[in-house]
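ugh ok fine here u go
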Amino acid sequence: MKIYRSLAIGIAACSVTSLPSSAQQTWSQYGNQTYGPNGTYSTYGNQTYGPNGTYSTYGNQIYGPSGTYSTYGNQTYGPYGTCSTYGNQTYGPC
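structure:
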């Protein structure tokens, strides 16, 4: 469950495509909702729905319109950098 919650937050954090790689963003998760500067994302099963499209999670891989992301522990690696998740907060551009 902890890894899956990290994935859900990582999906939302990593879907920020309009920000420069140096920008730092914070996302908060409550239940199946993730709130951040780009809007609200909802997670049902292995699908996450948000303003940028739909993301699918299989194991530690996330597939979506912005590309593929990998999660190891509290780190999510994506095309724009690395995000770190602590509790219900995710920090960083990815």
